[in-house]
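Hi P.,

Sorry for the delay on this. The queue was packed all week, but I finally got your sequence through. Input first:
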Amino acid sequence: TNSSTFALEMKGMAYVLRSVTDRSLVLIDELGRGTSSYDAVGICHAICERLLATRAFVMFTTHFVDLTRTLDAFPNFRNFHMAVAVVRNERHETSRLSY
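Then the structure:
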């Protein structure tokens, strides 16, 4: 379709919010990239609140640090920081996951 990034994100989230159950696994990566940061934080917060109410297992990646702070009020919310370090040396390359 000829839809904007924002419109596609919102269509996708509308489908998820209509279909989610307490047995769902929902993976969301960087929601809100198709709009301004100010609007995106509000949209992400509202979507997260709705998903937290469903009791589904949700993994939500975001660059909005404030979002993780405000959602701490929910008892079923956990905030994790994950990083990958790639170590290169003359013999081989390895990856190390830290969280």
